[in-house]
Batch of 3 targets.
Target 1
Amino acid sequence: MIDPRALRDDPDRVRAAQARRGLSADVVDTALAADEERRTSIADFERLRAEQKQLSKQIPQASAEQKADLLARTKTLAADVKSAEAAQTAAEQDWREALMAIPNVAAEEAPAGGEDDYVVLETVGTPRDFAAEGFEPRDHVELGRILGAIDVERGAKVSGSRFYFLTGVGADLEMALTQLAMDQARANGFTTVIPPALVRPRAMEGTGFLGQAADDVYRIDGEDLYLVGTSEVPMAAYHSDEILDPSRFPLRYAAFSPCYRKEAGSHGKDTKGIIRVHWFDKVEMFVYTTLEESFAEHQRLLAWEKEFLDKLELAYRVIDVAAGDLGLSAQRKFDCEAWIPTQGRYRELTSTSNCTDFQARRLDIRGRFEGGTSPVATLNGTLCAMTRTIVAILETHQQADGSVRVPEALRPYLQGREVLKPVE
RNA sequence: GGAGGUGUCGCCUAGUCCGGUCUAUGGCGCCCGCCUGCUAAGCGGGUUUGGGGCUACAACCCCAUCGAGGGUUCAAAUCCCUCCACCUCCGCCA
């Protein structure tokens, strides 16, 4: 939710941000009108309520005939108060809905436009030239089969399309990546967390996943519970309804959880392998800090993501995601995309968003500052999404005989193995 | 899953049976001031959160807020219903 006061004071800034996202500014006018309506209804209710309280207070000491008179007046007043209250509740709800429909105000720096209007900020490393090396790279599905690491056939048999089993070195790789990621996070002051992957509607709603994104979310039948698509959801809701002490900021958490996604709009896309799946595990960084500090923290999250990819010796580029592709909550977003040899292109491996105070408002997370409380900023960033990272590692570090060289940083977590060898 | 109990403004707590004097008691902590070689103690005051009005987003006035949401009533912390969380016991279980 955007700042209602800022909307009232400077609606043109919000209109401009909507334009950068390629969205209509109608929601702005709807929200402003709803705000007017809301404040009028509040004034009406409060005036009647104050009068009712005044009269009510007189009743106990009143004489018999005074009492009868008072009772008659308060009785009709009570009905008025009730309807005024109902009107206020309705107006308040309309206002809230109108406000909730407005996405976070995109950063001035975020490129205008949609999905394809990103700006490449930098390119790190060079994609391997397999032609020069004299062999055709195998894709991760084949490598996964040769190494006994990924079993997509049985995944489909047991759970359906877009499911898989990680076996042997595949499972070992996930464990190793998790440990490497957690060690890096811990060294940088993150608290390691294993959060619940099932959450209530409030958590989903608060993080902005029940709007247009709702199609992609699994709901538990008859339970009022959702499977999270990222641990951003439980970690944002972790401090919901709390007033935090800013002297302890930034609060940094590194959460490991499964992620579940319906991938509703992606039929036919990435049908092979484990690039796009209904479930994967992920280590996610999540930070609570002040609005002022959030911009610098966003850069730090990006730096940590790059550090992790560097350790895995991957070639990647960093893009500044365009306003129209930010999603509901983000004010700015950077994606790290790794080179996938058999696809001949860069694919998103990690993503970091500054949600400023947008989620904090929805989830009522404030800090106690001089001069009162105010919403804090939340940020998130992928440290390691297992499946895609495994794809990138296998394809990038494969050798002509189908074996895979293990990046040095990962070796201590893989029992010292330097090479993953094909199984018989 | 079954039975019972509990939920009060940071923490603890009075109040709930018998609705109005609750603009919610007291203690601890914290903040400001006084006192004081210093510290401690003592004394006085303050200390939920959100919103509206008015405005310098000050002061002030008002409304809401006793786990959440409904209901009864002129009036609800107090009575009724639903939900949530926690505790105890039983059952089941990794």
Target 2
Amino acid sequence: MLNEKTVSHSVECGDCPIRHRAVCARCESDELERLEEIKYYRSFEAGQTVIWSGDRMDFVGSVVSGIATLTQTMEDGRTQMVGLLLPSDFVGRPGRDGSAYDVVATTDLVMCCFRKKPFEAMMERTPHIAHRLLEMTLDELDAAREWMLVLGRKTAREKIASLLTIIARRDASLNLRTPKGAMVFDLPLTREAMADYLGLTLETVSRQISALKRDGVISLQGKRHVTVPDFSRLLEEAGDDSDGGLLA
Amino acid sequence: MLNEKTVSHSVECGDCPIRHRAVCARCESDELERLEEIKYYRSFEAGQTVIWSGDRMDFVGSVVSGIATLTQTMEDGRTQMVGLLLPSDFVGRPGRDGSAYDVVATTDLVMCCFRKKPFEAMMERTPHIAHRLLEMTLDELDAAREWMLVLGRKTAREKIASLLTIIARRDASLNLRTPKGAMVFDLPLTREAMADYLGLTLETVSRQISALKRDGVISLQGKRHVTVPDFSRLLEEAGDDSDGGLLA
DNA sequence: TCGCGCACTTGATCTGGGTCAAAGAATTTT
DNA sequence: AAAATTCTTTGACCCAGATCAAGTGCGCGA
């Protein structure tokens, strides 16, 4: 249900998710026109930094394709990923000047941006946009809090399983399902990036992935291509009984 | 007169923080009137549960006095606190039916509530409210992500120092400062609640507090009353160089 | 085709924080 | 005032995951 609302509709709408995510839900054509006028695209290569923490950020936008990460870094170099931006995710905080995090492209990345000033002006005139952004921000808040449970209380194995669960779900609608219902997807992150997301070291990530493979919870083709023969088994490993409405 | 965005203003406004936090910033008197009509108060005793995760939640509101916590619990009983609600903090998600978390009063608690339906109707009519809520939600999101760094990458000692930092800051305006600039405050949480917030056990919390005391970073009068002789020292211990603009 | 670099795996060892256990201190109940 | 309950501290030991250290395997440019 989440999927049909976002993905399929945004495809109908065109190639730019912001239309749907921020506006389309209840859009009128003149609003779309106005957004169209202040819209532009930016491309980044894998590994490139979109914006550094603390830098002035004069745009908001959303991911069209590729993957970006939000990370925080301590002075001594310890880093924690605080968000994973997949296609259609929104970036930027209306009403704030600077970025609170480093935003880095982990794959080649295309973003659809709006200069912040005109976007905010439009928000003033168009209440639907503020409502849509509020809804999206509440979603992100839920996700962040969910992740606090993962970081604070789950074991390394559960953390890995939780991450795989999220990745599998996030683009479930795009993924192939084998006849028997197995799920197949590619890991969009290096072991190190996974470690930064999970509050682990890359060695522990590697070991736990090996363990899940050994125990038949997943199988790997190459380093990144994952097959999950039984998704509910993976959910169990994640310590999470709910299936999020994905299975039915 | 109802246009200043300060703490003292919310006091001028009356005894109910929601006025300020959600509306007062740019309110007009008829909006206040309408809010007044759908407003009511609820009181809870220390330890009482305000609402269980998953339960239908037909109100939004804010804390007037006392402290509440948001927690998530796994089936096996592991719990993680995902939010700490202090006076003036907002609770509830416009547009959502159920609570995502257990909300528990850790002290005697008074909340100012609005039935959700009329509140949402008012949001539709009054764009300022949606803007204010968006701003507040973005603040909460920042806080949650900041906490992800604490949970994922900080040591037990740093975690304790980080929590003390937050508590000291949160009500800095209300706190006494001794002539020499020391900060004094009461811990509003048990050791167990602190552990749940920090992803630790209560034993580790106790040990690290003892260690900070031994090392002169803090001193305790009784179990709960804390004196911080040098706040920048505490910030250092938290692994956080910024002073958040508090010292000047 | 070689060799270099990067992402990943695996092993050996160490340690921070968890677990289990006992006992103080502060409050409330009887 | 004694007893019970709840919160906290402290000690002894253990283990999950970190750290340190080799390797493996694959892609890519020369």
Target 3
Amino acid sequence: MSSWATSSIETPTLAVSTVIFALRPNGDGCLQLATPLVRRIRAPFEGQWALPGGPLNTDEDLATSASHTLRDTTRLEPRYLEQLYAFGSVDRAGGKLAERVVSIVYWALVGADEADRAIQSENVQWFWADELPTLAFDHNQIIEYALGRLRNKIEYSRIAHVFLSETFTLAQLREVYEAVLGRELDPGNFRRMVESTGTVEETGERLAGTRHRPPKLYRATTITAGETK
Amino acid sequence: MSSWATSSIETPTLAVSTVIFALRPNGDGCLQLATPLVRRIRAPFEGQWALPGGPLNTDEDLATSASHTLRDTTRLEPRYLEQLYAFGSVDRAGGKLAERVVSIVYWALVGADEADRAIQSENVQWFWADELPTLAFDHNQIIEYALGRLRNKIEYSRIAHVFLSETFTLAQLREVYEAVLGRELDPGNFRRMVESTGTVEETGERLAGTRHRPPKLYRATTITAGETK
DNA sequence: ATAGAAAAAGTCAGAATGACTCTAAGTAGT
DNA sequence: ACTACTTAGAGTCATTCTGACTTTTTCTAT
């Protein structure tokens, strides 16, 4: 093994970035997966869109760093945050950067209400997750990977309600699943699944103002211990 | 946001470590999960056992770094290697270290044959995964986390055969599952499961020299595309 | 030959799943 | 006030999946 007494400039820079997902209504009034991106204001990839992120602050934990950068750049405070993967290929800057950067990437979910409060500016914009432009670094692959994780995780865990506000109807919850998975679900079977897993409970209220039978309102059951896993 | 023009000594050190699993026969002749650890030869935690690992080499990818460190310290060349998690709490050295270390941890599986070829010395030893001493840093928690991942992943993917040699009987494969999951499985149901998922194929050979009906030998079917996921 | 042991195939009941039907309870239009 | 329309919500049914179990086969050891 080689000596490691060389100057610490040899150590790759550590960055923390986050893939944020929200469901936003598209032209058809359907919910669609969207992700906010920020425009790079310096080389390399200046002017191109990239994941929000930044260098790891020395006195911050990884997840804390992700939250803070998110708040600073997009003003978003996600309701769900989980580590996705550490990306550290030697060539991930595509030869455009002298120093090496290892990115620890998180993924996050925000509710529709929260998503509207995000900064929208020249340099921060929402994009549909399945119609992204060419992004800086390897960020296209990273978002693709995060999408896979989200689609997989929604099937076996109870994170779907994070996209909604505190109370919601089963039809709204089903809409979340349909938007994420990209296919329609049978309303009856969906109801049976949700009720059998005990992820929601009735509030006793119903949603008024619809032009049909008023649906019951539910809330997510409080999670005991580390069940989100 | 604070200025980032400070010297790069502010950047945390990046280390890559690996949790290695193998199945080794214990006193009863049963297979049991074991993991090799190395003794630390410098502060902090000098003399205590720790995961094999080391600083990230600037010109190596993360997984490559994991393999190389493994080969150098334990002489093992795992047949399966996957990123586990990036651990980077500010206090993970327990106040015993001035500089901050972020560890990108991999987990690996080695076959029983390969495991025997590992270095066994004063400073490198196999431990039963469920009877570990107190390790350096947060390595006890890391191994616990890796164990959970292994147990989870063996249920939905086809990694079990990696613990065995190229050809094996269904009884041997079942033994792997039983050792990892820590419970007995019904032989008939196990056979049905394995055959229905098409993860193995007959070699045409049978294992001779048993004191009963000779079982068929199987090999793992070759995996097409990224199916291990 | 016979006993013992595990391999390999088969059985069966209950749970989970997907496709589907039927009834309830609202609104909107006339 | 009645009717048409729409979705909520309950229920049905056939198929598949799962776990527990039984039976038959085929080898070695004595």
